[in-house]
């Protein structure tokens, strides 16, 4: 196995890594660090939790430390863009740890907090700036920062930035950066839009791939409960949370309204819950994440954007209360568990109007997700795996399914008990809205930061009811 001292890192950085407890590089670090040190543009395909920050951060810190240049007032030498406040904060925190023995300065700028304080922090110049695109453009418009001296540009979670409509912001920012620069692009998936972005902004890039696009991280067991509606979802969720009192769970919903409503309901019936979504202030988000990270809160209810970039060890379960309308989002969601080599369980709830969404997820991942309870909604042909079974052997391909045995009972951890998990069969579509086409996204404009949440564009889908009674029709979120 490769060691850090084989990657070309200098002794100062190696000493910092040793003190921080880093022993072996992750696959993305082992592949990317030598290429970045060599000055190559790079496309890195890897899920969150694979060590991407060190993969680009360590070589950039070494390059900036060695070139001996100083940054002028309002200037920036390395710019790292990420889609959400939480991810920006996480990247900046990790980089600060790596930079402890260097004179380099680092700043972060995000929406939802005082722009005046950020403007003051940028006065003396910044060696490494970590930013969300919208707030960065706000500061540029105030002449608080200039990008004319940038030599390194990193686009982290690039697929998510495009999903959120940041393409126009990225184009504006790129025009302000010298063409002679090193550009690094990291993404968990590689849709056509990312390929086009790479062609426009990278020069003869090297490509490193740790996890094939659409494949979940290893050691994630995936199961689906077929349900009749929201009431069933809530009931099964509470069963699972009660059966796993020592677990740490993230529950994903599509809308801010739905996330808040579910969190309040769970809290009312006695669960230790916090929520993060676009209607929460930055302070509320930070407190919720701290409580979850410290173990004071056992359940975190979240929307996709708010939870992007969360890196909390020990998440045992991820629940897809609502299936995402974009299949790639499912891969990102379940990537919150089984981090750093740990095992994890991902449980999805599928109502009749979500059957096609499930089929699209299975098609993307090339698997049939094992059924934990309920009967698959009839009428829609089963997904045909395109890349083989990427479920760690825990689901069976459609071709190998054969006759369906009796349905196994549900176990305490959400898995089917008995001798094995039966793969999902035919799915049905009951008047559901079609999932978004990632290659033909609507153009949303700037996707600016605001107090309501960086990247929370207010279009997370319809608000839906849950709990007792019929779901009520709500206004658009």
TrEMBL record:
Gene Ontology molecular function terms on file: ATP binding; hydrolase activity; nucleic acid binding; RNA helicase activity
Gene3D superfamilies: P-loop containing nucleotide triphosphate hydrolases
Every Helicase C-terminal domain range: 219-380
Residue ranges of every copy of the Helicase ATP-binding domain listed in the record: 33-208
UniProt catalytic activity: ATP + H2O = ADP + phosphate + H(+)
InterPro entries in the cross-refs: DEAD/DEAH_box_helicase_dom (IPR011545), DEAD/DEAH_RhlB (IPR044742), DEAD_box_RNA_helicase (IPR050079), Helicase_ATP-bd (IPR014001), Helicase_C-like (IPR001650), P-loop_NTPase (IPR027417), RNA_helicase_DEAD_Q_motif (IPR014014)
Broad enzyme group: hydrolase
Keyword Flavoprotein carried by entry: no
EC number(s) on file: 3.6.4.13
One GO CC annotation: cytosol
Phosphoprotein recorded as keyword: no
Biased composition (Basic residues): 433-445
Region Disordered, residue ranges: 376-477
Superkingdom, natural source: Bacteria
Alphabetized UniProt keyword annotations: ATP-binding, Cytoplasm, Helicase, Hydrolase, Nucleotide-binding
Record motif Q motif, residues: 2-30
UniProt record, GO biological process: response to temperature stimulus; ribosome assembly
Domain DEAD-box RNA helicase Q intervals: 2-30
One Pfam match: DEAD
Similarity comment: Belongs to the DEAD box helicase family.
Name this protein carries in UniProt: DEAD-box ATP-dependent RNA helicase RhpA
Organism: Allorhizobium borbori
